[in-house]
Amino acid sequence: MNIYRSHVLICGGTGCVSSKSDKLQEKFENLLVNKDLDKEIKVVRTGCFGLCEAGPIIIVYPEGSFYSQVKIEDVEEIIDEHLVKGRIVKRLLFKDSIEDDIIKSVEEVEFYKKQKRIALKNCGVIDPEDVDEYIAYDGYMALGKVLTEMTPEEVIETIKDSGLRGRGGGGFSTGLKWGFTAKAQGDQKYVLCNADEGDPGAFMDRSILEGDPHSVIESMAIAGYAIGSNQGYVYIRAEYPIAVDRLQIAIDQAREKGLLGKNIFGTDFEFDMEIRLGAGAFVCGEETALIASIEGERGMPRNKPPYPANKGLWQKPTLINNVETYANIPQIILHGADWFKSMGTEKSSGTKVFALGGKINNTGLIEVPMGTTLREVIYEVGGGIPNGKKFKAVQTGGPSGGCITAKELDTPIDFDSLTAIGSMMGSGGMIIMDEDDCMVDIARYFLDFTVEESCGKCPPCRIGTKRMLEILEKITSGNGEPEDLNRLERLSENIKSSSLCGLGQSASNPVLSTLKHFRDEYEAHVNEKRCPSGLCKDLLSYYIIAEKCKGCTLCIKACPSDAITGERKEVHEIHQDKCIKCGACLDKCPFKAIITK
Amino acid sequence: MDFKFDLDENKEKIDKLMEIIEEVKSKNISKKASLMPVLHDAQKMFGYLPIEVQSIISEQLNVPLAEIYGVATFYSQFSLVPKGEYEIGVCLGTACYVKGAQAIIDKITADLEVKVGGTSSDSKFSLIATRCIGACGLAPIMTINEDVYGKLKLEEISDILKKYKDK
Amino acid sequence: MKSLDELKKIREASLDKIDLRNKKDGMRIVVGMATCGISAGARDVLMALLEEIKSRNLRDVTVTQTGCIGICRLEPIFEVYSPGGEKVTYVNMTPEKAKKVISQHIVNNKVISEYTIGAVEE
Q1: Domain with C53 in it
Q2: Are residues A483 and A400 both part of a single domain?
């Protein structure tokens, strides 16, 4: 085996691959061979480091130097300077990892300092395609411990005691769920993993599967032992090709090592698992719809009870948890329920992964103890709002959640506190919005999503959400009437109380919460036909400020509908009847003479 | 847009599909449960699911065509019409949306004269609004076949599209 | 996988693969790897240090590089920092001498004075 003096860790998460980290890896490997350094320096492709904003990210050990936004042209410099001469390339370091000329290693950077990584423990640390690296970080020790030292009842007790609650959104006690499925009668039982991460703006499950797939495999095997099942399925979105590939590689490696299959750890326990691809239907995140989809049906939910614990896949008792929930299990087994409970709040123990997106500096993936306040997450870990803009709201819980305003920023985040302020935890997507975002338009956006994704089985959701969307479109296009706001509220209540599944029951949340917190914006749209954020196109008009216009004719050329007229060196004019409000003139004007009102 | 599925031209692919179906059948799972994996393979092979292909699957798996059609139309990953040579996907996840993805779609629709979900008249481009692809750090984001364009600015669109138009 | 012991063995063997990425609190060896150091043979010295550390299974030692230490005529040079922060500078190093420093200084905490900069400069 080679002795390496340096490891170059390159992020291979979807975010960084999208910004060409795969090309960087190739370049590193080629150059190291050319320079005869490939026996001394090892290139490792890892999962997501979490700071997608700064990608592609490279970390060099043993120094722990944290390079961000590395370009192909920079590779040679990193090799020649850092890896050969030991001089860290300061200009490429992540902005927060160098302060007063003192270089901080990756774990000292503010973004990571406040975090506590359990589910993401190995993401960005190990090579997800090498089972040995997972084992080196105590991988499969929990499975070994469970099989050789614990009874299934003890496993379930431990999970119950830990207070772990479902991370997919429901927040139901994981231990109780395991207990119900264990008690259910049936000759065959199944363990399912819900990796159909559909909430737009949430990507923690993808990152875990990409960065640490074995943790999910190990955990599902533990679940199999606890409830008495020998077969697992992972239902994963087809939109996540990298995650699918890595999970398949991990399953193959686990089989090869005898960590899946028969007689695991010399016991008579056997367990195996397969991947099932989703096909782009948000509703399949609902457990009964997911089961229908695996069975080859249209993914439509059904009434509960009976719950999957009693009648699930092919009518057999079935345990179903989401990816992040599973990723916590091995750590709880290894360190005990009390360790897990020591983190977080009384009713929500442990940590939670959040995906920060929208108008925030450090877009990416973070994991913090439950009970951390929204302010800490947004301003300390997230680095605040870019371009000096004012924070307006944070949307949590995706299409089922709501908006939280500046007044509530000091709320400690846990399952119950978010519900109490009219939003919800959901799967952990957090979209931060600033003063430029129109809340009516955001509500319209989510309804548009729900209408598109409604499966059509029950009328309240199929028809009701469509009507709500129509009303919202009417408002954003400037045709709203005062009565519309009441109509929206009434419809919301009806859909909420009469829909079949969670999708419909929660579909109106984005509308209700924006109506509650930003009613003034709705009223401005309806009564004054004005969009306070200047985002709703139909409510905007473009004007030329005469004093600033130099008559350069650039806007005239840019206008696709010939709505601007004027002679060279004379003030131009926009004809409102012809203007299609595309904004092309605004982008082209070098003198900032065009404004919207 | 008019298109015709030519059975003779696609003979090789159909033979391959038969092999896949045989392999799936040999595994001991119910026929219905193997439907989704087979549809995924077929979609990958043909780029869409023509009714002719659905009929073949129906006969081979002994699942009624109506049910297959039901499944194929339910899921957004399956398409019943062929895609353009370049498939443009603009992410409409929330993170991309608040960073201006809608304006990008509007720009592409105007530039290429293609509707969301449609294919241009020369079959060169098709445009879809994708669900969140999970690269929210790079919002707004657009994919053209395998190429990914992140942190997009509106004024870059024309130049990017031009590269593909000229290809 | 037949037993927990088998897993532990794989774990032991795999630790080497990731050891470099762990945070350590023990001795730190910093090798001068500027042009002068490299041309004097600093890379061989560095590799000798790593080999010796591996063969002795020393888990708490970090080996890193730095640029020019400033006394080019005495290269290859490396500095050993103890956890308390004291520094010993070894000069005119060779792979053999480097291995000896590991066995004496790092393992037994005995500075080899005749290799240090103080002794050579006198």
Answers
A1: 23-121
A2: no
The parent domain of residue A10 ranges over 6-108
Whether A265 and A165 share a structural domain: yes
Residue A119 falls inside a structural domain:
no
Task: Report the complex ipTM.
Answer: 0.91
- Residue B24 CA to residue C63 CA, distance in Å, equals 54
Interface touch A53/B131, C-beta < 8 Å? no
- Triad A460, A464, A470: Cα angle to 5°: 170
The set of residues, in sequence order, having a beta carbon less than 8 Å from that of B65 and lying 6+ positions away, is B54, B55, B58
Q: pLDDT digit string (tens) for A548-560?
A: 999 999 999 888 8
Tell me, yes or no, whether A166 and A273 share the same domain. yes
Any CB–CB contact under 8 A between B34 and chain A?
A: yes
The size of chain B, in residues, is 167
pLDDT, residue A580, reads 79
User: Considering only CA atoms, which of A509, A141, A518, A523 is closest in space to residue A332?
Assistant: A141
CATH of region B86-165: 3.40.30.10
The beta-strand segments (E) located in A203-303 are 231-236, 272-277
Count, residues in chain C: 122
Give the separation between CA B31 and CA A103, rounded to whole angstroms.
60
The DSSP code for A86 is -
Whether residue A74 is predicted with pLDDT greater than 80 in this model: the reply is yes
Q: Per the domain annotation, does A219 fall within a domain?
A: yes
Q: Looking at the partner chain, which of C1, C18, C32 has a beta carbon nearest the beta carbon of A264? A: C1
pTM here is 0.91
Query: Best of C10, C12, C16, C18 to disrupt the A interface by mutation (most A CBs within 10 Å)?
Result: C18
Contact A277 B36 (CB under 8 A): yes
- What's the pLDDT band for A61 if we cut at 50, 70, 90? very high
Q: Per the structure, how many domains does chain C have?
A: 1
Q: Over chain A, what is the mean pLDDT?
A: 93
Q: pLDDT tens digit string along A144-154? A: 999 999 999 99
Q: Which residues of chain B are under the pLDDT cut of 70?
A: 1-2, 28
pLDDT at position B2: 60
Choose among A5, A85, A144: nearest Cβ to C4: A144
- Kindly state the greatest CA–CA separation across chain C: 62
Q: What is the CATH number of the domain that holds C43?
A: 3.40.30.10
Q: Tell me: the pLDDT tens digits for A319-361?
A: 999 999 999 999 999 999 999 999 999 999 999 999 999 999 9
State the best of B35, B36, B94, B156 to mutate against chain A, taking most chain A CBs within 10 Å.
B94
* Other CB atoms within 10 A of residue C104 CB: 14
